[in-house]
Fold this sequence. Notes:
By secondary structure, chain A is an alpha+beta fold.
Amino acid sequence: MGRSKDYISKLRGLASKGFDPRQAALGNPDLQELALREAMAKRRADIRKVAGARSKERRIKIAAQRLARDRARKLKKKFLTKRSWAIPARMLFGRRISSPILDRLDPQRATRWKPIVSRRFKREPPRVQLGSLNFLDDPVGTMSEFAKISRAECDEVRSFLDFADAHCVDVGAYLVLAEIWPQLAKIFQGGRMSRPVQKVLSAIRLDQELDIGLQGVRDHEDVWAFPTRHRRPRGTTTSASANLQPQEREKVADDLCDLIDEWLHVADDERGNEDLDRWELSPEGRSLIARMSGELLDNAERHSFPGSTDGDWSMTAFMAARPSAEGKRELRCYMAFLSVGQSMAESMSGAPTELLNAAERYLGQFGGDGPSRETLMTIVALQDAVTSDPDATRSGRGGTGLQDVLELVADLGATDRPDADVRVTIVSGKSCIRLRHPHLLGQRDARGRRVQWCNPWNDPRRPPHVKTAFDLPAHFAGTLVSAGFTLDSRLFADEATEIDDLGN
Amino acid sequence: MTLAIDLEVLTQGRVHNLSGHERGLAAREHFRLDELDKAGEAVEIRVPEHIYGVSPSFIQGLLSESVQSLGSTREAFFSHYHLIASDLVRRQFDRGLSAILTDRNFAIN
């Protein structure tokens, strides 16, 4: 009973903060009984106070006590007949769960977070109105939307979450949401979300990760998704021969290619093709996708976890058939790769001295103008032959992964065409790099290295363009690479007619 | 008997692409490429037909030290190591070798 007494005192505290005791009844029949008794006793006491239970006149005193009992019984009836949202015990008395991403996006989260029992209960749950979640095009705005989620999670007992996006235009933001979601107190009860966004989240199975019901989803028509995948937690590799076994990232790459083939078969069906020659990824397209995915996930494993090459990652992708400006049907692809931990600039601290000296010379050119040292160091990390691994530098390997990724995305999105819409955004630490066609690809310098100095002249002596490389208002603990492009139609070849090399 | 390494050992028929710098390094050690670099005869690198993708980072992990020990030229490397692979995979090895041969003296300008 000692535990029950403890709960009774907590329930009394909750009632004084406006909690409906039913909602604090913790889903346990014994405790519900206790909660009910507490609520009835409080109701009787409240009524006696104002209804003259202390009157010297016996008639008035008896009437007040009868009224108090009657109201308490009504309360009991309401308890027993009306269903209500109950706060789970582990949430009510739970503690803050630290979140590597959210704790840095909202540095005040640690100090502002109050236990649920200390929060003021509001009869009408407030609504958090989220603007567009789009790291790909608006990373600054999207960070402030995540800060809104954090504030509500720190202060509210329950809240609705309303999403403004009409369509999912960046899957990276939702991947980040899925990453932080398990660390949030379960205060979000529901909210509004457009049907197209629900459809995408359902297709990539983020609804299961977020543990939310998407009532508006009737089908996954026009959306072909790659359900979210994760590598096992960082630092859990134990086998010495692990690298000789097939890797999860390689399975991801195979599955991604198979899925894109499935996308194309569906698209082929849509155009009413009943021939035996079906659309499928050409071998070149297949290898491009596998290599891009492999490079990004390998980078995440090697650089996100300080002092180890055993970092973790998550990734997801989807393709949607959407109309182009000319009204044609286009296959829009969105991919996102997330690693939590060190930023690119932070991982550079372990780079060889000669490299850091050269980087310092680049950073020193701009004095206090332009972006921070961190963002300039992130730009340095983009360049070919720059790696934070001293062993790799000594052996003449590594340091080309990011340029490879840009090249592969450019190939997938047909950047040899002037009107190609190919976008890549890298959010890492306090830095953001937004690369867009025609300034997406690094250009080879006199030594044959691909360099991307983030200005229209691709000149290291000039500062980066303010819209291409800039500081973020808060620190993103890790690296998110989000890409959006229209799939190059030349990558789908009829099975009988494979296309030629795409200029590699 | 021809000296050879077969990348099928790494895929075990369960995956159809190879990626990762550390995986390339582990494969290098497994296949004892340090010794094969010094072998008096040519060595075959066999890539099974079902493999359609080999990432540049894997190739760098696997072959960087071989390229360096064989004189840092594409020609010298391919005269010692004979690649038995599809054209698609050969192009990917060529791309990987370009990455290996990239000048790593980082300097601005």
